[in-house]
Amino acid sequence: MGGDSARIRLYGVVQGRSEGVTGAEGDDAVYTVPYREISCLASYAPDGGMVDKKSVLKELLDYQKVMERYLQKHTVIPIKFGTRVETREDVLRVLESGYAEFLKKLRAYEGMIEVDITAAWNDIAGVTRRIADEDDEIKRLKEAAFESPADELLAEKIKIGSLIKCALDRKKLEILHTTLVHLSDVVVKAQKQEIIDGNDVFNCAFLIEKAGETGFFSRLDQLNLDFEEQLRFKCVSPLPPYAFCTFEVIRIGIDEVDKAKILLGVDDPAQLSRMKEIYLKKVLECHPDQDPENPGLESRFKELTEAYKVLSMVCDKQKCGLEAVGTKDFFYVDQAKSS
User: Fold this and answer.
1) Residue 148 falls inside a structural domain
2) Looking at the structure, do residues 131 and 191 belong to the same domain, yes or no?
3) What average pLDDT does range 179-194 have in this prediction?
4) H/E stretch holding 77
5) Euclidean distance between CA atoms 85 and 108, whole angstroms
6) Residue range of the domain that includes 72
7) Can you tell me the distance from the alpha carbon of 209 to that of 224, in angstroms, rounded to the nearest whole number?
8) Cα–chain center distance at 327
9) What is the pTM of this model?
10) What is the 3-class SS of 171-235, one letter each residue?
């Protein structure tokens, strides 16, 4: 399924068993790799990866196109953008490691899609002027500022600016609350997301039933009318549930496991509870607070903490000791913390 120099991109997981090419032939081909009753969407990518902004953007667009295509007929649980593995066997081991959680989420999010909505001010300068004209405290300070000595004027302006910002933030929260209430009976979940542009009022992801798209967008159209003079809405849809359930894959090399075992002084049958006891005892002995003048303690502390993190990830998924790892790299699969 590809040359020796190929690496495999992972997109997401769907329910059902299928194998082979499902998209275009050639470089853009997307494959499904089955494991039990789930399958992973994957494609080949040349070695070198995303080396510059242009290649990152191209891969991101390709990633999104694949998602859009599969969302037409499937529920897709996304794997974090940029995730790659080396071989088909690696794909199978990713599916094996995350199988229970993948299946659980596929069932939980069946028939659902994400819609991302950003609301931005049409005229933020006009909004701030209205706030300044209508807020009694701000008006009082502006009038007093005209009579302030020159050396106090800057402080007064900063105070006025701070009050305007607070009033603007309150207005943003009111609009978000109004939006959430207006859409509450046509969404399953809502998740606030980071605001990037200073003109944005809110950035929110909504999880909706695919069968309820018409009702959702009808409500959104009404919001557009209600806020026509103040806001403009930008909508991106359909999306898999990125904000609610994106999985990350961490490859842990067998050499990392061996190094961690030596650092903590544990053997294969050691259970996670025992490892924790050993770890806590060792880090107490070398905690940087024991001797702030000794830089070696901090380095040792970090090494032990990283070793425990590696072994705990392995044991957490294996639900047993380290003997199940064998002699191959291990794939830790879990829901990304940002989801």
Assistant:
1) yes
2) yes
3) 94
4) strand 77-78
5) 27
6) 7-109
7) 21
8) 31
9) 0.81
10) HHHHHHHHHHHHHHHHCCEEEECCCCCCCEEEEEEEEEEHHHHHHHHHHHHHHHHHCCCCEEEEE
Instruction: Compute the distance between CA of residue 176 and CA of residue 125 in angstroms, rounded to an integer.
Output: 20
Contacts of 232 (CB under 8 A, 6+ apart): 119, 120, 122
- Say if CB 16 and CB 39 are below 8 A apart: yes
Contact 115, 219 (CB under 8 A): no
Q: How confident is the model at residue 180 (pLDDT cuts 50, 70, 90)?
A: very high
Residue 25 has pLDDT above 50, yes or no: no
pLDDT of residue 3: 41
Are 14 and 105 members of one domain?
Answer: yes
Compute the distance between CA of residue 148 and CA of residue 132 in angstroms, rounded to an integer.
19
Give the residue among 270, 249, 257, 255 at the shortest CA–CA distance from 314: 257
51-86: per-residue pLDDT in tens? 678 888 888 888 999 999 999 889 999 999 999 999
Q: What is the pLDDT of residues 125-136, one digit of tens each?
A: 888 888 888 878
Q: Which residue has the tokens 């209430």?
A: 181
Report yes or no on 280 lying in a domain. yes
- Rounded Cα distance between 239 and 129, Å, is 37
Residue 221: count of CB within 10 angstroms of its CB: 11
120 and 213 share one domain: yes
Q: Where does a domain end: 192, 212, 239?
A: 239
- Identify whether residues 283 and 304 lie together within a single domain: yes
Model confidence at 148, pLDDT cuts 50, 70, 90, reads: low
